[in-house]
Each structure stands twice: as structure tokens, then as C-alpha cells.
Design a protein that fits this description.
Its cofactor is FAD. Belongs to the FAD-binding monooxygenase family. It contains 21 helices and 21 strands. With 602 residues, the protein is α/β, with parallel strands linked by helices. It folds into two domains: 210 residues, 3-Layer(bba) Sandwich (FAD/NAD(P)-binding domain), CATH 3.50.50.60; 236 residues, FAD/NAD(P)-binding domain (3-Layer(bba) Sandwich). α3 runs parallel beside α7 and α3 packs parallel to α18. The protein binds NADPH dihydro-nicotinamide-adenine-dinucleotide phosphate (NDP).
Length: 602
Amino acid sequence: MTQSEALSAEALADLRRRYRLERERRVRPDGAQQYVAAEARFGYYAEDPYAAEESGREPARDRVDVAVVGGGFGGILAGARLRRQGIGRVRVVEKGGDFGGTWYWNRYPGIHCDVESHVYLPMLDETGYVPEWKYAPGEEIRRHAVRIAEKFDLYADALFSTTVTSLNWDETSGAWVVTTDRGDEFRATYVVTATGTLTELKLPGIPGIEDFEGHTFHTSRWDYAYTGGTPQGGLAGLSDKRVGVVGTGATGVQVVPELARDAGHLYVFQRTPSTVDVRGNRRTTARDVGADHHGWARERRDNFLGIVSGEHVEDDFVADRWTSSAGLLEKLLPSFRRQDDRAALEAAYEVADAAKMNEVRARVEQVVTDPGTAERLKPWYRYACKRPTFSDLYLQAFNRDNVTLVDTADTQGIERMTARGVVVGGTEYPLDCLVFATGFSVGNSGILSGRLPVHGRGGVQLRDAWRERGPRTLHGFTSNGFPNLIQLGGTQSAPSVNFTHVLDEHAVHAAALVAAAEARGAVIEPSRASEDAWLAVLAEDAPDHEWFHAECTPGYYNGEGRGRPNGAYAYPHGAFAFHQLLQRWREESMDEVLATGTSARG
Ligand code: NDP
């Protein structure tokens, strides 16, 4: 389809029909219930394959200044920013065997960050590190996480391979009592939670999944003992194996080229194709990215965040497919709320979206030589329905003789598994190994999901306090009744595709709160009036995206097709504006949350 045809009313109507059809083929009555967690009989899927053998340690029973729950970039940055504020004892508690979070767990072959490394890796100005590739491999990112943790001396007090099991506010000592699955019970004057967003791996609840006698694992726990090789490839153990991979999201797109190269035969079980745009990874020099003065990294990531938050920005430093498609992802959606002529804007959006998706589909046709395979790899939905992906290797992999694409859309996923393999459309595909690239449960932290019970003043559990009328926070960080508890990266703040940038701004904020409370001998706790005022800000311009997601193919963006209700879940004007708001508030209004004494605030 040419660009001009795409813009005709008839072509747009055809697209709308096609998109509706593709959605209807995929919506399942069981929605998110189709997945099973890696618990109980599936618990072995979540075991840590990377942790070093640890001899037992004495349970911690002491008191620290700050307990940080989670040692991914959120927790590391909180620790680093707290250190910069001169806070002495900061204890990070982390489930994995080291720092790194997502980059600790995900070490699958081909892993890269698909956001430019010079804006994604935090604290480049502070550490003097300049990434060598535009899109860094996972191991480089994991090492950078360790670099920051070492520089700010976070190893000294950290507890690894340890999961926090409860947080209880103790009025008498004015501290949180932190318990863990390793028998620790220590006190912390402040708690910062940095428990991440997509952390709990999920498996498809395929009938017969337990009958399969071959080898299986999830991409976030890659079994190199079985496959051989490293994240850079060389999976020699697969050379004579029939390997299947389920899932073609951002992870599947990165892992498929590696499996295609090294497996005897690869079967890619696809349900919904991703949009696979140009990657253009390349080596970069310090000069290319303007790393010739202190502050270069901050300027670059501010520039990126401005563009993807829909701000008017003159220059585009990163200049990649995130920034060129920003209008379809974030820029235009918030602006629907600001414009009077909504119909005209929606029409313009649809035309721009169709042009982009036609370009994406045309690329499939250009790259994939077999027309039938190319047809099945074309995505039929709007660009922002699913997380976009980028690769110059993925589509090409389907031109290999040892790669077979198996479309599972008609059966809404793999039908069933047998002792020998996978069944789709009545055909059994015998396999030696099946890799699940099936993603993660959505839930911003263990707190909201109830996995991590938090009891504040009077023993009230945070989850119960929010059960009836939803979350109540000031800026997403602090809540009345839960003194000295700061949540990072959570609900009612402002997310962005460059999540480490968001986490760093949150870490700066958290550290400033703690430092101010220390300086004044105060407790951090917003009043209910402060929470109400914040809820009013969120509600005033709350996003109207229900219509959009209701027309999308299912996925974790839209509750597996059930829609994404409108509501005051995030600051409506984007992350860039949110960070400016936070800075102003720290300069002018921070006293609002600093109460002297530990009594309850009204
Ligand atoms: P996703 O949830 O995005 O993808 C899961 C995949 O599994 C989908 O293709 C899904 O199909 C498929 N699937 C699930 N169940 C079945 C089934 N029964 N039969 C067949 N297929 C099935 O997980 P990812 O791990 O790919 O990505 C999760 C997130 O992690 C990303 O969105 C991104 O935020 C982050 N990420 C970031 C990267 C980066 O470079 N920054 C790299 C990798 C991940 P369907 O779409 O039809 O549901």
C-alpha cells in the first residue's frame, strides 16, 4: 500500500476493519488469567541461576538509617543519591545475588537496551563512563549498575539473595521494622521501596505444560549450562537441538536471531507480531555524543525526555526511532487533553499512525523473502498498542532454512503441550527445548500486589488503606499514615520509556526528603489535605486513553484486551513536566511533608 492510498478515507476504513478483526481473533475470555506465576509447582522457573553459592550469614538485627527495598537501578540510585546527601547507613535488600535488577536477571543471548545507552545508563557524568555502543549490551549495563554501587559504597551494608517479607512502623522507636525471608529483623528510620514494575516472570497456562519432557526455561533465567555460550552468543549446546521459543515481544525479538544462528532448528511460536523498526546500532565515540564537558549526559537525557514527553524541543540529540515516533507514542496522546478540536486531532493521529504502520509492514515485505511468512509477520494494530521493538536481525532470521514461523493467532496461543512438544492447529511440533519469552506480570510493586505487606501507623496495612478509594499519595512517593516511607517509580508519578531517568529523578527527590528530615529532626509524612490536593491535580487533566486501548490487540498495555480504564494513575503532563514540578516543590514547599515529632498527621 502506498502512502497516498494509506491516507485515503477508504484505506483508513479498511485498516480499521482489519485492526478490529485482528483484535477479535486474539481477545481471550480468560484475559490475564491465562498466565501462571512462577510459584509453587512452577517455582523452579524463578530460581536464581546466577547467584554464587553462599555460606549462611547471621541475621541482621541492627538499626540503619535507610532500608532500600530492591537493588535494581531504582535502589542503586536511591542509595547513591542518599550517600551524596551524606546519609551514613544505607542498606539495600535485594532478591538477586548482586545489584542490577532487570539487568541481573535478564542475561539472555542478544540482550541489549533498546533505549540509547547514553541516555539510559544513569550517572554517566558522575562516574565518567561513556558507553561505546549506541545501544549497549545487557552485560555492559549490569556492570555499570555494579560500578555505581561500588562508587557509592553500597556493598558494605547490602543483603543479597534476600527478600523483604514485611515492613512494620514501630511508633515507639520511630522506625520501620524490616523482616526478610532470611530471618533478618532490623530497624530503619526510613524505607525507600524500589521494587520495579515488570519483575515477576509469567508463564502461559498452556494445557499439558507439565507433560513436556524436554528442557524449558524463561528468558529471564537463561540456562547457559544447557545452551552453552554467553549473552554474546555461541550457544553450542543447541547445534543439534530442535528449539522452540514462545513470545515475540521486545525479548523475543532480541533472542530469536541468536537462537536462529545457533540452534539445529528453531520454531518461533508467534501470537501477535511486534512492530520491528530499524535499529541502526553502531559504535560511538565520546565526540559523537558530545561527552566533552561535565553535564553532557544530563543534557542529552533531558533532551530525550523532553521529546518523548511531548515537549517542544528544537534539537534531537539521540535522533532514533523513539524520538521520531514520539508523536505516536506519547506526544500526541497527552495533547488530546489539551486541544479543543479533538476530532481533527484524532483524524490527524490516525493518518500519521497508518503511515507509520504501513512503513513497518512494508519493511517486513522488503526483508522477508517468503511471502507467506512475511504476511504472518505483519502487525495489524496501531503503533502505540504494543511496545515497539527495533532490530536489524530479527526479520532477517526468518530467511534462514532452519527457522520456521508458527502462527498461533487462530488458536489464541499454543493449543497444548505434550511429552514431545507443542501443538498448534492440530499439528505437533516435536522439540528438545522450549524457551518462554512470555514476559512479566504487571504490578508496580510488591506493595500493591500484597506480596510485601506494609503496616503503618496503628498497624493499618497500606493495601487496605487504599482498597476502597484507590491509592492516595503526594507525588506518588509518600502517604499519610505511613511515615518515612518513600515509594520510587510508582503509581501517581510520571513514567517514561527512559525509566532509569525517571528513577534517578525520583532518587534525587527521595534523598532530598530524607536529608531535610534529618536536618530538622522531622518525620516525612504528607497530610490528607496534601494528598487530596495531589489527587485533584491528577484528576483535573486525567488521560482519556480508554477509547484507544479498547481498539488494540490484547497485551499487558490494555489488561489483555479488557481495556485500560481512564483514571488518575499518573501525572497527566508527562515525566519532563513532573520533574520540573518536583524541583520547584523541593525549593518552595518541602516543609509541607516535614512534621516534627512522630504523632499522626491529620
Ligand atoms: P511481552 O509481555 O512483551 O511479550 C510476551 C510475548 O509472549 C508476546 O509476544 C505474547 O503474545 C507471547 N505469548 C504469551 N502467551 C502466549 C501463548 N500462550 N502462546 C503464544 N504466545 C504467547 O514480554 P517481553 O519479555 O518481550 O517484554 C516485556 C517488557 O520488558 C517489554 O515490553 C519492555 O518494557 C521490557 N523489555 C525491554 C527491553 C529493552 O531493550 N529496553 C528488552 C526486552 C524487554 P501476545 O502479544 O499475543 O500476547
